[in-house]
Amino acid sequence: MAVTGRLGLLALLAAPVVGLLLPSWAGIGLAAAVLLLLVVLDLVLAGSVRRLQFARSGATSVRLGEACEVTLTVANPGGRPVRARLRDAWPPSAGADDRHRLTLPAGERRVVTTRLLPTRRGDRTAARVTVRSTGPLGLAARQGSHDVPWTVRVLPPFHSRKHLPSRLARLQQLDGRNAVLIRGQGTEFDSLREYVIGDDVRSIDWRASARASDVMVRTWRPERDRHVVLVLDTGRVSAGRVGDAPRLDAAMDAALLLAVLAARAGDRVDLLAYDRQVHAAVQGSSDLLPALVNAMAPLEPSLVETDARGMIAEVLRRTRRRALVVLLTGLDAAPLEEGLFPVLAKLTSRHQLMIASVADPRVAEMAAGRGDAEAVYDAAAAERVLAERRQVTARLARHGVEVVDAVPEDLPPRLADRYLALKAAGRL
């Protein structure tokens, strides 16, 4: 009934105009002329899209793999209602559910919510908001676009968080909280207790034993307030894909687990991302994990060879006291031979260096292949790659460098375990 009433009203309004234009429209027929006029009038009566006003709110960050919502408030200051379809456009990697229907009376406002499920890490910026406003008959529409800026930062997912409880339990053991006491170089005196079979005789405190009725030994706990520097190589070697993600993403996941563990151990943790220049840096943050994931989120691999000399110079400039430097890079022989090895002594003479590298599980699979001639050739190539990595690892070990080489799923826990082993041995 409402549509019929509108049709009658529009036909009544259009009658005088049709009478004036009828001679020129005689060739196309009266019905077509009336329809054309109704379309024009419907377009005129459609709510204006230019006068609409927009404001955003909602999420500004989200972890990769999780969903978030961004709200768009639309106000209609005009005198006619707006019946529209609205598209809140985002890049494809934002995973936006961006199409909405909107009925907005004159002088009122409405809120539409866009749900995002990002598929890539980094900053995702909203594109234009496009509104198509239809007339009361639905025969014609006005369309316009508006720039309504908003950015959602997609943070690293931190999948290795699942390994944290077990490593924290081991850290508590090292710290003496679970009655497991250790002794090592660089550890701090904790307390005295009676000697039991199996204790290190070097821990006996002879003066305390002379005053007591039993042999007394010193207990020790690992030193705190050490310095851990995480260095992400963002050069060419980090761009290679392992599975569905670049090596850089796996390196980030390992760095996050180690950073949280070291911070819980009372150590200071810094971050440096470098290839030929500094792309991110975090130093002495009191709120470590948010600072790290925000610094890592926009990082992308660069297709350039990393300047190892510049990287080491930057580390030495920023790190004055002795530290554990964890370099997350590749173990490819050629880049290390030309880049890191010539300047390695400058770093190892002042700091304890650990190199963590992401291995490709496909290489090990190829090395085991023997099905046909092609598989044998692939296996030979894979064995050569594995042999080169073993040679590089041995050479680094001769320089006192700790090396962790593992596939993406195993790298975070193995790196954390190596850190705990160094802490237990008092080598930090």
TrEMBL record:
Organism ancestry: Bacteria, Bacillati, Actinomycetota, Actinomycetes, Pseudonocardiales
Instruction: State the Pfam families in the record.
Output: DUF58 (PF01882)
Q: State the InterPro entries in the record.
A: DUF58
Span of domain DUF58: 192-395
Protein name in UniProt: DUF58 domain-containing protein
Which first-to-last residue range defines the signal peptide?
none
Q: Which UniProt keywords apply?
A: Membrane, Transmembrane, Transmembrane helix
Q: What sections of the protein cross the membrane?
A: 29-49
